[in-house]
Amino acid sequence: MTQFDRIVAATLLIIAGVGMASAHWLGIIFGAALLAQLGRSVREGVLLGVGFGILIAVTFVGQVVINGHFDRLLAMDILALLPIVIAVGGGLIGGLTRGVR
Amino acid sequence: MSNDPDRTRRGLLAAIVGGVTAGGVLSPIRSYLDGFAPLSGGVWDETQSDRRTLQGPHGAATVRTDGYGVPHISADSEAAAYYATGYVQAADRLFQLDLQRRQMRGQLSEVVGPDTVSSDEFYLKMCFDDAASATWNALEGTRVGELIQAYVDGVNARISEGKLPPEFGLLGFEPRPWTPADTLLMEKQISWTLTGSFRTLRKALVAETLGTAAADELYPDRLDHDAPILRNGTDRPAGAQSIGASKTNTHQLDAALVNRLSEFESPPGIGSNSWIVSGEHTESGEPILANDPHLLLQAPPIWYEQHIETGDINVRGVTFPGVPFVIIGATETASWGFTNAGADVIDFYTYESDGDEYRYRDGWRSYETEERRLRVAGATDRTVTRRRTVHGPIIEEHGSEVAVAWTGFGATRTTEAIHEYTHSDEMDSFLQATSKFDLPTQCLVYADTDGNTFHYVTGRVPIRQTDGEPVAGNQIFDGSAGEGEWDGYRPFDRPNWDGSGFIPFEEMPHVINPEAIGTANQRIIDDSEYPYYFAESYSAPYRGIRLYEMLDERIDSDQPVTPAFMREMHRDTVDLRVQQFVPMLSTTISEESPLREHITLLENWDGRMDRAEEAALLFDYFIRSYRELLFSEQLAEIGLPESYPTDWVIAGLDPESEWFDDRSRAELLEAALQTAVDRLTSESAAVYGDVNTTGEMTHPFGLSFLNYPSYPTDGSPATLMNYRRTGVAGSSWRMIWSPDGTAEAIAPGGNSGRYFSAHYHDQLKQWADGEYKPLSLTQDGDVRFQFGGEQ
């Protein structure tokens, strides 16, 4: 697989992963797991999974900011961290599947 | 062998991935993941646009929302309009709907846990759910029943979409489908809030413990003042009371029972203000109506504002979430509002009993019993045994028990009346509808474009009879002896409301087209002017006196009444308690006392509970301290620690009263003022507005981010601009209306219960500052939901 192929595959998998994550929280794990398979090592796979999780978290915060609710989100204190933890944690779990292969 | 570490690693990782995923799916953590997951979590649905086109099984309807989040619903038919109403109420207030229903059905512990078991036991034993079912049984198949069903369909359409407010995610449950009986349960809830009183039991306990004289001194049935609502009596019937003077009876009751029941009755601060002025005295020549019901203040508010327009109706106002029809509001021809009347529609009965049966007149009857499971989250479920007699459900504690008769246990027709209000276009049809308003007992005020006004007490007040003679209801009756019977009363069935067991509608206290009338929960009518036993007691008259003071002064002056004057009355902060207590301090505390400078501060103050006033803060601290110093120990000794008498009673206590015990009144006044001064010195608050804030209005969930922001406001529990910051209650909806085009109102918070909504508390600051927003009957705003279009 060439570098170009990998980039194309990663882009497609990220799009599919974000779609799945928008439907259900299991989508974060599935999306991360699919992306992680592009990793050339377990370590790289896990990093890709975590990166996917961070992308989901950033997308989420971006949505909240665009819709004008960032101040309300911050006011939720510890609960505001839950979606971030779920995103990154789900990405990590998905990424770990690279090591099962 | 070289593959073993790899196999172990793969196995370990597979176990971690599989275990964590399975744990997320199968464990209670799932509710948090479902709720809070980024992008998909139900909690974040509220951050997305909530505009859509939906199917409308009852016909086409459009919901627009204006700049305050008020839904303006237009439809070709009422059924379509109320389907849309159900949908939009659920979109904005679903958790509130479910919480109220759970409370009344005794199902809070199922989701909250053991903390609410006591509450659930009470509500289960009171059988409110059966009363709601009986009321629905009477409505099912009628036109109103069809509209309620359409509303219910709308609520359930929203529930079925799965877009749940964050509170459901946090508690980890989903709401069951809404039912018509749930809507009727809301009628029972507000009726209980306004008329459910255990005062008879409380007073009997005090009388048993301390004697009837002490009980009468502490809780007098009538307060001495000259500002009843109907100062000239009722239109009909006039005449002296035909029953003997009521008496305070004693009864052996368990103090724990009475104290516990106090948690579930009408809380302090529940009341209201209303006034109407005829066109004869207004600048425009048109009548003016003002109303502000005083109810619990919370996030989100107890009321939901809505505007509904079909070919037949055009009505805007507020309702309780869970109820389809506007309860207080205005149409194109009229406006109406309510204050609590305080009529006595509840009685208590004891029996000769062997545990399984009770004696009723000449025979023995079995208790009607039913076992209900009380589910408790995180603890063992319990079984609650419900028992009933011919009079109603039994409530008991430590072997002490009474049966409760309450008009709300019958199939009430109030929802029919409320629906008919929206169709009324003149006074007679409005009065006709009011004749079905069985509960709660309310002081209804009305004004219309024909120039008519009226004040009419709604509801059915029982005529208690013992041996065929009318008797007062402020006593515990011997149920076995057939005392205190209500003819035609059938709990959990259809009572004969129009029979001889209740005061006829035509003879309820009322006045048609008065010059002006003011209601603020004070005594409705002097007993000498009315032939029936009507109320056990009324609220302290501070607001009632002030209201008439302002109305009389204006009407007697050269200045006509204007909408601006109505607003001035709504915003009035004169606290008449100041006129009672400050002179007491002035005359009893010596000139040499170091407290003199503080008394001077109070003496030089105009008695207005305004946010910028230091004296208002000092007075507020003083009155709380004086009340506690005077009564807290003695009330705790008799097992009723929070049952303080009204400030009117405290102010009027004879300086030689036994309640002062071995202390003099002067000593107590000085000690209370010293405590207030110490508090003022030690705390950071400098003026009244530092503590009198909207920050006390909280969300029942207990999470701080869901509470309302803190804005300073004016007023006290005794002022027309009404705010009680402890046990928070006050003006839950301020409304002014006149055919001259005036139509304005404000709610304490926002119309949406959705935390991320721009309308979560967008009216709060205006409310705190005594401002209003328009209450127009034009379709306003952008389309939010369109029903009947393509999916």
Structure overview:
- The complex is a heterodimer of chains A (101) and B (791).
- With 101 residues, chain A is mainly α.
- Chain A is 81% helix and 0% strand.
- Chain A has helices at residues 3-23, 26-36, 42-66, 70-75, 78-96.
- In chain A, helix 2 (26-36) runs parallel beside helix 5.
- Chain A is elongated.
- The two termini of chain A are 18 Å apart.
- The mean pLDDT of chain A is 94.
- Chain B is an alpha+beta fold and 791 residues long.
- In chain B, 34% of the residues lie in helices and 18% in strands.
- Chain B is built from 22 helices and 30 strands.
- In chain B, the strands form six sheets. In chain B, strands 1-30-2-3-6-7-8-9-17-18-23 form an eleven-stranded mixed sheet, covered by helices on one side. In chain B, strands 4, 5, 24, 25, 26, 27, 28 and 29 form an eight-stranded antiparallel sheet that branches.
- In chain B, strand 11 and strand 12 (363-366) form a beta hairpin.
- In chain B, helix 10 (199-210) packs across helix 11 and helix 13 (414-423) runs antiparallel to helix 14 (427-434).
- The mean pLDDT of chain B is 93.
Task: Sum this structure up briefly.
The complex is a heterodimer of chains A (101) and B (791). Helix content of chain A is 81%, strand content 0%.
What is the distance, rounded to the nearest whole angstrom, between the alpha carbons of the first and last residues of chain B?
62 Å
Main structural class of chain A: mainly alpha
Query: How much helix is in the residues of chain B?
Result: 25-40%
Number of beta strands of chain A: 0
Q: How large a portion of the residues of chain A is in β-strands, by DSSP E?
A: under 5%
Radius of gyration of chain A: 14 Å
Low-confidence stretches of chain B: none
